[in-house]
Amino acid sequence: MAQQKPLRLGVLVSGNGSNLQALIDFSKTQVANYQIDVVISNKKNAYALERAKQNNIPVFTVEHQQFATKLLFEDKIIATLKQFNIDLVVLAGFMRILTANFLNKLPNRVINIHPALCPAFPGAHAIKQALDKKVWFTGCTVHLVTEGVDEGPIIAQAVVPISRDDNEISLTLKVQKQEHLLLPKIINDIARGNQIIGQTNDDGKKNYL
Ligand code: GRF
Question: How many Å lie between the centroid of ligand 1 and the Cα of residue 17?
């Protein structure tokens, strides 16, 4: 179903926030059908927070170390997202693994960007793994988040050819260039109803966002 009002995003980050920046930049274009309502970081020094503040987006730091259990940490993030009536949660370099406790409260509402062609190279060192395996192509994947690390249903991918003289820095730059194009485009497609996410129901129909 096409979304009439802009899709409301909550973006979870842990670091530099170059993907957040790409989302912010695209959100300012005429074709954008989403808005970023809140940015939440589990790291207080994440540069992503500065990027959000510079664009007057509300920011919250929810440090996992401050919570006795993962459940309490996750529930604090959920409560913050609910406060902003978020339609879709985007993990953009968020370096914590979310459990069923979190995901069941936002079914089909959490997506992630991973710097590899899933299901290849899950986890934190996807670029290094691609170089070590000497594959000729890698890329990036936008996928629905499930409990398994970087293994949820794939929504979209972009391919990046690897040169024999690529190193971790050069390949990271190439992959991130594609991430910055893919992530905003796919979220905008979701917002416009042109991209379906979610599982097929028993009756064969898709769950639409
Ligand atoms: C990106 O490469 C993303 O694929 C991965 O973490 C990195 C985050 O980079 N999940 P940034 O913080 O968006 O610059």
Answer: 7
Give 109 Cα–ligand 1 centroid separation in angstroms. 19
Regarding the beta carbon of 178 and ligand 1, being less than 6 Å apart is answered no
User: Which ligand 1 atom is the nearest neighbour of the CA of 17?
Assistant: 12
Please tell me the residue having the least CA distance from ligand 1 atom 7. 93
Q: Does the pTM exceed 0.85? A: yes
How far, in Å, from the CA of 23 to the mean position of ligand 1?
A: 12
Cα 39 to Cα 61, 81, 184, distances in angstroms: 9, 9, 15
Tens of pLDDT along the chain (209 residues) come to: 444 699 999 999 999 999 999 999 999 999 999 999 999 999 999 999 999 999 999 999 999 999 999 999 999 999 999 999 999 999 999 999 999 999 999 999 999 999 999 999 999 999 999 999 999 999 999 999 999 999 999 999 999 999 999 999 999 999 999 999 999 999 999 999 877 666 555 554 444 44
The torsion angles phi and psi of 11, rounded to 5 degrees, stand at: -110, 125
**The three-state (H, E, C) secondary structure of 135-167, written as one string:** CCEEEEEEEECCCCCCCCCEEEEEEEECCCCCC
**Which residues are marked as active site?**
114
